[in-house]
Amino acid sequence: MRFYQTELTLARKTEEVKEESERSAKLRRKTEAVDYNLKTADFIGNNIKINGCAFVSDADDDKIVFSTCVINRGLNPDDFIEKFVNALGKKQTEIKTKEVYLNSFFYSLKNAQSNGYIDSDEDISKMLNFFSLYTASSRRTIYSDRIIEEDKSFEEIRFDVQENGLSRGYLDEIERISGGKTIDKFVCHPVHYFIQSKNSDKEQLMINDLLIALYNKGRILSKRYTSINAENYRLDENVLENIYTINDGNTVLINIAEIKDAETDLNLGGIDLREICRVANNHSSKTLTIFTSKDCSPSVKETIINSIGEMPLVEINEDSFSKLAAVDLLKKLAQKDEVELSDGLVERLMQSDKDYDYDEINMMYTKWYHKHVVNDLFPEYGKYLVAKTIEEEESMASPHYELSNMIGLDKVKKIIDDAIKYYALQKEYKVRGIKCNSPTMHMVFKGSPGTAKTSVARLFARILNEKGIQTGGKFVEVGRADLVGKYVGWTAKVVRKAFDDARGGVLFLDEAYSLVDDRNGSYGDEAINTIVQEMENRRKDTIVIFAGYKDQMDKFLDKNPGLFSRIAFHVDFEDYSNQELLDIASLLANKMSLKIDEGAKEKLLQTFAEARKDKCFGNGRFVRNLLDKSKIRLAGRLMKSDLQCLTDEELVTLKPEDIVFEKRADKSIPRIGFY
Question: What's the predicted TM-score (pTM) here?
Answer without folding.
Answer: 0.55
